[in-house]
Specification:
Helices cover 7% and strands 51% of the residues. It is built from 1 helix and 6 strands. It has a 5-stranded mixed barrel. It has 118 residues and is mostly beta strands.
Length: 118
């Protein structure tokens, strides 16, 4: 059955994931993701806070996600209370995550296609 609260986001990691411990040894991690939003006049990036809980949080923290790395996040929206500002903010609880490798810049100057010099 399809849930009415499903979200899929594609963007770039705003930072490396951070793992935290809660009460009763429950773990969670946070992953900020920047989403490009275009309008007819300009292009902006919107920051979306994402979080994962339990074993998934530990796995995400161990992935060594770098700032700027492309990713697709699937999850659900949740309201959470920000204790510092005493306000409610929207975040995404991650159910599934796909991370793409960082694109490497290869220099083909003076070499063959595989990068070795003749």
């Amino acid at each position: 059955m399809i849930s009415l609260n499903d979200v899929t986001l594609m963007g770039r990691a705003g930072n490396t994931p951070k793992l935290y411990n809660c009460a009763f040894n429950k773990k969670y991690c946070t992953v900020p993701i920047y989403i490009n939003t275009k309008s007819s006049e300009n292009e902006n990036a919107t920051l979306v806070e994402c979080e994962a809980w339990g074993d998934l949080a530990v796995i995400i923290e161990r992935l060594n996600i770098a700032k700027g790395q492309e990713m697709i996040i699937k999850g659900r929206l949740r309201n959470r209370k920000n204790s510092k500002t005493n306000s409610t903010e929207l975040c995404v609880v991650i159910n599934d995550l796909r991370v793409f490798p960082l694109k490497q810049k290869f220099s083909t100057e003076g070499g063959s296609e595989n990068g070795s010099k003749s």
